[in-house]
Amino acid sequence: LMLRGRYNEAEELFREASERAVGRVPRAKIVGKIGELALKRGDMETATRAFEDALRLLGVPAPAGTPSLVVQLLKEIARQALH
Questions:
Q1: Rounded to an integer, what is the distance from CA 33 to the centroid of its chain?
Q2: Which tens digits make up the pLDDT trace of 6-16?
Q3: Are 53 and 29 in contact (CB under 8 A)?
Q4: CA dihedral defined by 8, 9, 13, 14, rounded to 10 degrees?
């Protein structure tokens, strides 16, 4: 439905699916899709909130400001360098 531009119907199904999802990862994926849908609609505030919620479900805190963003970025660079 989202790919066909039927955003209202897609949103209803995504919201229902997120309530029924079992486990953090499946729920985070669905909440991320809600964010993607909001992004397609141009609703940046809702998209941001949905993406942050999806990250929180995965145990990754969204940066609250520039200093925490820099710290998280450095941690991720170090993690990827170790891989």
A1: 7
A2: 999 999 999 99
A3: no
A4: -40
